[in-house]
Specification:
- This protein is mainly alpha-helical and 101 residues long.
- The chain has one domain: Multidrug-efflux Transporter Regulator, Chain: A, Domain 2 (Orthogonal Bundle).
- It is 60% helix and 7% strand.
- It is built from 4 helices and 3 strands, in the order βααββαα.
- The protein starts with 9 loop residues before the first strand and ends in a 5-residue tail after the last helix.
- This is MerR family transcriptional regulator.
Length: 101
């Protein structure tokens, strides 16, 4: 079961109010592949509370002079490190319990 923070239920207008970002800024961050809302059948964007937190973090980094390319690059590196760590942990667990893949 996923956390309520991961449920994509918030419209772009409310996200704009919560973050202080314009709807255009939010769409721009989506275009730059920094945020990934879901789309309803009617093409309405829906965001989660984690997306709101991520947008605030992005806005703070932009304000500090970090570019969208650098933000995306750092996120990819973070994800890659997490995936590597997870593979290593699975390998250690498999070795400890003598599980063969």
């Amino acid at each position: 079961m996923s956390s309520y923070k991961d449920q994509k239920v918030i419209t772009i207008g409310i996200v704009s109010e919560l973050t202080g970002l314009s709807e255009r800024q939010i769409r721009y961050y989506e275009e730059r592949q920094l945020i990934f809302p879901v789309r309803t059948a009617g093409k309405t964007r829906k965001y989660s509370f984690r997306d709101v937190e991520r947008l605030v973090d992005i806005a703070n980094k932009i304000e500090d002079g970090v570019g969208t390319f650098e933000i995306r690059k750092a996120e990819k590196k973070k994800q890659s490190t997490k995936e590597t760590r997870n593979r290593m942990l699975r390998g250690q667990i498999n070795a400890a319990f003598k599980i063969r893949n």
